[in-house]
Amino acid sequence: MNAVVFPSQVNGKVKIPGSKSVMQRLCALALLHSGTTIIHHPDNSDDSETALKIISALGARVTQEEDLLRVESSGEVSYSGELNFGESGLACRMFLPIAALSRNKISLTGEGSLLKRPLTFFNEVLPVLGVLMLSKDGFLPFVIRGPLVPHRIQVDGSESSQGVTGLLYAFASSVRANTLLSVTKVVSKPYIDLSISLLEPFGMSAKWMTDDRIFIFPRKQILENVEVTVEGDWSSAAFLLIAGVLCGDIQIENLNPQSQQGDKFILDIFSEMGIHYSINKLGVSVKQQRDFKSFTCDLTHTPDLFPPLVVLASFANGRSVLKGAGRLVNKESNRAVELVKMFSSLGVNLFFADDEISVEGIGKVNGGSVDGVNDHRMVMAAAIAALAADGPITIAGAEAVSKSYPEFFTGLQQLGAQVSLI
């Protein structure tokens, strides 16, 4: 599917979908909980649907009831067979250690770009925890046989925080004594904080004791029924917030200003740039402010903010520097390379070198045609840029937004944007 997005003013209210990062984590915890979990306001993105398929395969029973999901589980993982993680990096890295709790042989595979993402973290860690593992050079497909036996361990967190979350959840569900998980070279720490914050309703707990040491505590006795809610997605909201800054007056509902989601960092960047926003009980509001300065920020811990912030930097006046770009190489695409390619074709001067993307903003972006490279965040970045561009932008492969925000283009249209899907 191609999307043609025309320069448009956008005004009104939009309810942001649930966070797939929160949704997938709650799915994992519901699987590991012995009893019933009610998940309110579930997310329906492709990645979240993948997580539901995985927990169903691993033994949970999932029932849809209006705006909630009911997950019933024994809390035990005893699966034997094949698991397919689709293209979800979080599902793969988080559920792999959880699946390894099973004593049975499990084949693990994926699709598309996930097959090209290195997973050497698990080659190094799982055998130390008693898991037999076969892989080819650290890429899917894998074959594993557990059970994973938690004990004090040190891991390298520089590849991704998602594998750390998987270990954290596997440990928290099964340790019988306080257990230390040491994580060196931590990246995306806010996402580990998010993972820890979601443990409590399920009777599990963990705590950072220092910047690189997490203590995981034995599970507490809790009620059989647990109720949780999927909060709004700050990663998706970042794109619409920037749409409001560039060309409108938007209120984004269903956002939690106290969220542990790392991409809430977008508000700190706005404050540094002098971009005004307001927070009320319904969400966050922004108005058009086209005269703003360039900026420098470190996105090592929030790499999903690169695409929307490249858009913002393109319309700023002056040179913006976005640090931590090395984290972009193993996403759905090599986002560092693809961002340079996409925005260069739209008349923006930007460069990737030495772990940084620098953007020479001149206050405008040209219209044109771009390839979304099967990457949801690249598609959304092009669409938001088009709203304030000198002409329409045609985006090939626009269906990729279903990975995280299936209603993205519908939401833009509801705000008044002119969008043609062909």
Helices, strands, pairings?
Layout: E1 2-5, E2 10-15, H1 20-32, E3 35-40, H2 46-57, E4 61-65, E5 68-73, E6 81-84, H3 89-99, E7 105-109, H4 120-125, E8 132-136, E9 139-145, E10 153-156, H5 162-172, E11 179-184, H6 189-197, E12 205-210, E13 213-217, E14 225-229, H7 234-247, E15 248-253, H8 266-273, E16 277-280, E17 283-287, E18 296-298, H9 306-315, E19 317-323, H10 335-344, E20 349-353, E21 356-362, E22 368-371, H11 376-387, E23 393-396, H12 408-414, E24 419-421
Parallel strand pairs: 2-15, 3-14, 6-7, 10-11, 18-19, 22-23
Antiparallel strand pairs: 1-23, 1-24, 3-5, 4-5, 7-9, 8-9, 11-13, 12-13, 15-17, 16-17, 19-21, 20-21
Helix pairs in contact: 1-2, 1-3, 3-5, 5-6, 7-9, 7-11, 9-11
Could you provide a short overview of the structure?
This protein is of the alpha/beta class and 422 residues long. The chain has twelve helices and 24 strands.
Largest sheet: 4 strands, mixed
Text of the CATH class of the largest domain: Alpha Beta
The chain-level structural class is alpha/beta
* CATH homologous superfamily label of the largest domain: Enolpyruvate transferase domain
Beta strand count: 24
Q: Count of helical segments? A: 12
Task: State the helical fraction.
Answer: 25-40%
Strand content: 25-35%
Beginning-to-end CA distance, first to last residue: 6 Å
Rg over CA atoms, rounded to whole Å, is 21 Å
The side-by-side strand order for the widest beta sheet comes to: 22-23-1-24
CATH architecture of the largest domain: Alpha-beta prism
Query: What is the overall shape?
Result: globular
